[in-house]
Amino acid sequence: MADVRRMTIPLRGAWKVSRNHRANRAIEEVKRHVVRHMKVTEQERIWIDESVNHTIWARGMQKPPRKIQVVVTREEGFPIEVKMDDEDEDGEA
Questions:
Q1: Thinking of the domain 3-84, which architecture would CATH place it in?
Q2: Who's near 18: CB < 8 A, 6+ residues apart?
Q3: What is the per-residue pLDDT across 46-74, written as a single tens digit (0 to 9) for each?
């Protein structure tokens, strides 16, 4: 059975570093948030989808978004997947 969670990840930590390192730090903030809230063990890996990377880098290195909404999926035998949440605000896909 897969454990699926929708999360809003705040990326405020990315704005506490110099301008030229913000997008890189935002990716690290995503990883930290998932590790904390999904209780990732030493043996598990985290796989961040390309769409998350494109969203963070969309406005360049110096201006990542303040927060992003993602879907995190954990399945037995696979890495923990972090993907963008495509669901609309109404709750309809």
A1: Roll (3.10)
A2: none
A3: 999 999 999 999 999 999 999 999 999 99
